[in-house]
Design goal:
Chain A is of the alpha/beta class and 182 residues long. Chain A has three helices and twelve strands; from the N terminus they run βαββαβαββββββββ. The radius of gyration of chain A is 18 Å and the shape is elongated. At the A-B interface, loops of A face loops of B.
Chain lengths: 182, 316
Amino acid sequence: MPDEPLIKSRPTYTEVSLRPNTQKHLFVSTAQSLSRIRSLYEAAPKGEKALYLFGKPEVTDLGTECGSLSELDVVINALPLASAVYVAGDEGFLWDVHNLAEKAGLASEQIQLLAPESNKRRLFCTHCYAITEEVTYSPHACSGCGRLLLVRDHYSKLHGAYVGVQINAEDPADIPETEELV
Amino acid sequence: MSIDTIQVRVTAIAEVAPAIREFTLAPVGGELLPFSPGSHVVVEMPAEPRPHRNAYSLLSDPRESGSYRIAVRRQETSRGGSIYMHESVAVGDELSITPPANLFSPAWSARKHLLVAGGVGITPFMSYLPELERRGANFELHYLYRSSSTGAYREQLEQTLGERCFLYDSEAGNRCELGTLLADQPRGTHVYICGPETLIAGVHEVAQSLGWPESHIHYEAFAAPQPGNPFEVELARSGVTLNVDADSSLLEVLEGAQVQVPNLCRGGVCGQCQTRVLSGDVEHRDEFLSAAEREQGESIMPCVSRAAGKRLVIDL
C-alpha cells in the first residue's frame, strides 16, 4: 500500500562495511546467513576478528559455534572499547544481539546489522505480551492468548518484534483474509 | 533576547584562581528555576556601545536552587565581556540572565564517565560531580590547568574526589598523556571535554584514532564571536541594510536593530539562530551545521559566522 505513511519505527538496513580504527571485529551469524557475511569476515584483518555462529553451519572450518545468547553475552563483555559487531540473521535475532551489545556499552555506530535473511517476523501481542516467532502472514494467531492479531509494521527494537493487535475484537467470528508479509 | 530574562543580584564575588572570579547570583524577587548538570545561562552586561552577552556554565549543585554560581575567566584579548565582569560588576549589582539551557548533559547510560577539563572548563563539571556522586556513577576527573592563572577549586576537588581526581599543572610540568588515558578505558566509557579548542580538538583526535565511537565523545566550547572583516547585510523581508563592523557579530547587529532572532548559546553550537541565506558567501565559524549544509551555503549561524565577502542577503 504505497499511500500508507512510512512507519518510522520500522528499521531500515544499509550496506555493512568494516569499521576503521577497530581493535576487534566480532561477527555473529546464523548458519543460514553465513554466506552473506562471509566475505566481510574474510576481509577483516587476521588476529583481530572472531566469528560466532548460531545453528549448525554446513561449512565447519569457519568460526565458533555458539549455543545461546548468554554465551555470546560473555564474548561481547570481553570486547575492548574499540570494537565493532556485525550481525546477520532473522530480524528478531539481529535486535537481540544489538541490544546485548548496546547493554555491554557499545555505541550504536559500532553495531552493524545486515538486512534480515527472511521476511519472518517476531510478533509481540499487545494484549497478553506473548511472543510468537516466525510469522510470515497477517493476521496471525497469538501463541499466548489465541487472539487473531493484525501484524503491524510498527517495530519495537526493545523486543525485536512487530506489534500485533487483535483484528476482530468486535466480532471474533469475522476472520479476514490473510496476507503475505513483506 | 528570545526568551524572557531573569533579573538577578550579585550577592558574592570570590577570586577562585588568579584569573577566575566566581559570581553568586540570587533572584530579585521570585525563585530561580531548577537546572540539570551541564546547564548554562547567558549573562547580559549593560555595556556601551552595545551590551555583552556571554554564556557561562552553572557550577553549583543542581539541587541547590537558591542561587546560581558562575565562574568567569578574564580574557585579555576578547571583546570585553569577561573584563566587564571582572572590572565593572560589584556585589549588589543587578544583571539579566536567560533561564538555564543545557547543551552538555551527561549521557546517563554510560558505564563510565571520563571528564576532561582545561582551565575554566572545569565549570560544567562542577554541576556534574554532585549528581554523579548521588547516582553512584563510575567516573574520573582529569583537570588540566596553569596554576598562575587557572586551576579553580582544585584543592576542594582533590579532597572530595580523592583518587578519582587527577590534576595536571602545566607550570609544574605535569602533562596529561591523552594517548595513554584514552587507550586505557573500558568499553562503554563516555568522554566529556570542556576547555580551550586545542584541548577539545586534541582529545577528539586521539579518541578517534583509538577507535572511540563518535557518539561517546562529548564536548562544549562556547566560542565567543571572533572579530572579522566588516560587511553589509540586507534583510530581504524588510529591505533594510545594516553594517556589521569588525568587532560585532551579525546577531548583535540584528539585535541592535530590534530584529528578533531566537538564540540560546551565542557560541555556534545550539542551532537556534540558524538563518536562511539568499545570496552571498558565508564564512562558517559554528559547530552546528554539517559539512554538507556548509557546502550548500543556504544557512548562517549569525551568532559567530560572518560574510566571506562584502555583502550578504538573509531571509529576515
